[in-house]
Amino acid sequence: MKTIKSIIILVGLICAGIAQAQTLDVAALKGVSPAVMRQVYEISRNVKLTGEQQLKLAHGIEKENKYFLQDIAENDGMLSVRGAQKLAKMRDQMLADVLSEDELAQYYRGYFDKEADAEGQKVANELRSRYALTDQNWKFIRIAFYKIDLESRVISKMMADQPKKAAKRIEEIKREYLTSIEEKGGLRVNPDMTITWVREFNPNALRKE
């Protein structure tokens, strides 16, 4: 029950954090070009940042744009593979320099949200097509695999230089959310993506103590 409650609280906090974002400090960005300001907005819409942080992002984006123009000028109007890789590294480094660890995690959760949601839907739909899942169990599976995919992407991104630790943490996250499916719905999703019914669904397991 504690695990279920902690997951609900975590999802609520993440959603609240994203909802509070999407604020651009126009005064702090005075003089910044519209194109750069738009890119700052695309970052700020996923995590609430101060005007100072937004201005630092703007300066970083201006450097990226300068490098972009240099690379395409040297490659007949096309962005080279090396140039694309360089720009990606510049963006990752800029975000890491400007955002705190918590802010960075929140940003990536917003950035990967749609892809993770699609993955959760896909897994739940595939299992429902093979098993007689109730709407509640479909929902439990969709949410769990959404969170597994989302947190896995965030961890992989933030711990790219520590692949073994990242893999270990991802496995822990996966176990936690798969356990939540079993606790709430009475079914176990196995590693080979088959389902084992452990017990009948107990709606009382969803009630608060």
Would you kindly provide a written description of the structure presented here, covering whatever features stand out?
- With 209 residues, this protein is mostly helical.
- The chain has two domains: 15-99, no CATH class; 115-206, no CATH class.
- Helix content is 71%, strand content 3%.
- The chain contains seven helices and two strands.
- Strands 1-2 form a two-stranded antiparallel sheet.
- The radius of gyration is 21 Å and the shape is elongated.
- The N and C termini lie close together (9 Å).
Task: Report the major sheet.
Answer: 2 strands, antiparallel
Overall number of structural domains: 2
| Neighbour order of strands in the largest sheet | 1-2
- Large-scale geometry: elongated
What proportion of the residues form beta strands (DSSP E)?
Answer: under 5%
Distance between the termini: 9 Å
Work out the oligomeric state of the chains in this entry.
single chain
Helix/sheet category: mainly alpha
Elements, N to C (H/E):
HHHHHHHEE
- Which bin fits the share of residues in helices? over 70%
Mean pLDDT: 87
* Tally of DSSP β-strands: 2
Could you name the key traits of this structure?
two-stranded antiparallel ribbon; mainly alpha; 209 residues; 2 domains; single chain; elongated; disordered N terminus; 3% strand
Task: Give a brief outline of the structure.
The protein is mostly helical and 209 residues long. 71% of the residues lie in helices and 3% in strands.
SSE blueprint and pairings:
Blueprint: H1 2-19, H2 34-44, H3 51-74, H4 81-98, H5 101-130, H6 135-158, H7 163-185, E1 187-189, E2 195-197
Antiparallel strand pairs: 1-2
Helix pairs in contact: 2-3, 3-4, 5-6, 6-7
